[in-house]
Design goal:
With 87 residues, the chain is mainly α. It contains 4 helices and 2 strands. The protein has helices spanning 14-25, 31-43, 45-66, 72-86; strands at residues 8-9, 12-13.
Amino acid sequence: MNAELERNVGGLRCREVLALLEEYLDDTLAPGEQARVEAHVRECARCATFGHSYSRVVAAMHEALRQDELEPAVAQRLEERLRAAMD
């Protein structure tokens, strides 16, 4: 596993924050867990950058899904951006 994902900040490792990101954005984490994610992201620029990119992709997908259908070109761009953000 990438050593950068093992960095411990605010009581969580980067890989743990990534695993909790969906629940964090959905606001379904317990308050203590949410506070730990926020503490990590305040101190970890890499996770803050990724989290911001991820949240923008999720928001764009939610908006696109509100429409009748997601255009194939839009779906491909979203997938490419998400993959690039995860690298």
